[in-house]
Amino acid sequence: MTATNKADTYNLTMSIDRPTFINFLNQNRTFFFNTQWFFQWINGYERGFYANGPFNMLATFTVATGYFQDRLLPSATFVYDFASASGAGLARVTYRMTQNFTVSVGMAGFFGHYQTKTPGLWGVGVGGNRVNRGANQSFVENWLAPIRERDELYFSLRYTF
Hints:
Oligomer: single chain
Helix content: under 10%
């Protein structure tokens, strides 16, 4: 658990690891479960940019194991930001052909949406030529929402010497 303070932002991080046997899925190797939680408090967030606040929380959860003497390594990671309702799902399978030659295939899928924010009195974009309904609203994409359209599949071939 770590805590930091920069300006008027307070951050707290917590991590929990647990290796667990799940015999019907893998009798010879544990499944490694890891979760990380990131807490943030922003004083005066409403005076500036379009951040979620004053309290933000992001969580990750990872599951990984190994098969065939750790030659086949599947893993999955899930990320979720509570304030912006955005996140990601990441999956990967790695196969070690030799000590020096590795092949990986994986995917990353992201989700999120625009959020409606009322700008602060001194915020960016206040005023201007805004008229009609919603003139005092701004639409922002926080945390992982800006990359929600950037899902990807990848293939990696690695040789080390």
